[in-house]
Amino acid sequence: MAKKPIRVAVTGAAGNIGYALLFRIASGQMFGADQPVILQLLEIPVEGPQKALKGVAMEIDDCAFPLVQGMTLHGDANEAFGDANWCLLVGSKPRGPGMERADLLKDNGKIFVAQGQAIDRHAAADARVAVVGNPCNTNCMIAASQAKRLSPDRFTAMVRLDENRGRAQLAQKAGVLVTEVSDLFIYGNHSPTMFADYTHAKIGGKDAATVIGDKAWLENEYLPAVGKRGAAIIEARGASSAASAAGALVDHVRDLVTPGAIHSVAIPSGGRYGFADGVWAGMPVKSTANGYEVITSYEMDDFAKSKIKITNDELLSERDTVKEMLG
Fold it and tell me: pTM here?
């Protein structure tokens, strides 16, 4: 029996990440090759983005994807999130020249207050939310705080791009395929403060730090390189990560809907791993049929704890900046 289509709402659908993302959803890479989808695409309600959105929709039509069983275009969040099973919050205001992070948090916070309210009012009873728009951890916390019907665990933020970056850089250093790198998890914020925990990672099933054999490189080069990779890409290509961010979101959602998958997700911390209760922090989870379970078995050494404290302090600072927006 054919599966019932799921409704997937995507914000910022005509932006660079959205453009790189939609064709992968439509082809079945996110939800599976046998899962039909109905795309509900949202862009800001002004002429330029709405015109671009129509062009993106035309291209999706022209691909004749068998899995796409419907597509609607929106400038209103209340309509776009109607009966949505998945809400992918990609769109956000980018940080401009001279803009302080606090200003960005407040500007984007207003967007995610409205979207959180619209999702809670109009999305499906089983709706799940994945936040990409930065600062994604705190934006996710803001959106979740508006929800009265949906529980906080339905809201996740994406740190999978950091995990993918970290795995790739370890693989390159060790001279192995990226598939040889496992158990690398991202703790904390999706920002340069995040901690890519190489201390528990494996390369070819062996302790990654032992395989690399260069503690100074791991602490002083590897961690900053992973944390600042986004800035390095902007410097190199003159634009922020788009295709890799879209790919990471595909990984993020695909693993969340794959029971048994183990991966990094930013979720309500619950006070785990030394994070303050109430912030959304990256940590390892195992997906289940109905959600996820946090893996709490990793013991952190003093170095790891010091790194987690730094990223936790940043998350607390961000929470304090947007405290008036939290429902």
Answer: 0.96
